[in-house]
Amino acid sequence: MKRAFLFFFLSIPVITMAQKSNADNFWENLSAQCGKAFIGEVLEAPADDDFRNNELVMHVLSCDEEVINIPFFVGDDRSRTWVFTRIGDRIQLKHDHRHEDGSEDEVTMYGGTSTSTGLATLQTFPADQETADLIPAAASNIWWVEIIPDEYYTYNLRRIGTDRFFSIRFSFDNETEIPPPAWGWE
Fold this sequence. Notes:
This is Secreted protein. It is built from 3 helices and 11 strands; from the N terminus they run ααββββββββαβββ. It is an alpha+beta fold. The protein has one domain: Beta Barrel (Lipocalin). The longest helix has 17 residues, at 2-18. The mean pLDDT is 92.
């Protein structure tokens, strides 16, 4: 009886760990950067893209069990915030775009929801119907975010059927001061 109880007691942590999904692990990896800001670099973008000529900063502003907000700045433009939301065992990525006065841009809250629990280090977000209705050309967009603990965060966009590919990386070794609030987040 003692041996059976001991086995049961010792197996509880293993059972608990086995129940954690890749989406849970991804969420934890992203949340580990909460409160920090990082300078990024363009890995791939059109040659004339404004992102190439400006400082890129992401600020992992707020993290809880359901939502992670990450303002993303391109030079002085503080209009963008990546909004990650837990939806059951999936993760949704939306792009919140604001004007300098804090009002919503007419093109905002587009993105998608992962179709599986993904990987602990990688989540993909195919464009949802709201995105297709808002930006018809973006109906074939697929975004993916890779986060390698203690190394980097990479944001990527591919528009299927076109040459459109965009990729930026933020090294966790390249931490910077906390920037001013994103527009609309004051």
